[in-house]
Amino acid sequence: MSSAPLRQARIDLDAYRANLDLVREWMDPVAVMAIMKADAYGHGLEPIALAAVDAGIRWIGVLTVPAALRLRSIGVGEDVHLFTWQHDPALDFRDAIDSAVDLGVSNTAELQRIIDAVDQRPARVHLGFDSGLHRDGATPSDWPALVSLAIDAQRAGRIEVVAAYTHLAESSDQDDADAVALFDVAVEQADDLGLDVPMEHVAASLAGLERKEFRKDMVRMGANLFGIPGADGVSAADLGLEPVMTLTASVAKTKRVPVDTGVSYDYTYRTASETTLALVPVGYADGVPRLAQGHIEVAIGGRRYPIAGRVAMDQFLVDVGDDDVQTGDTVTLFGTGEHDEMTVLDWGRSLGTIGEEIVCRIGPRVPRFYEGHDIEGRVGEYLRGDRS
Question: What does the DSSP assignment read for 60-84?
Answer without folding.
Answer: EEEESHHHHHHHHHTT--TTSEEEE
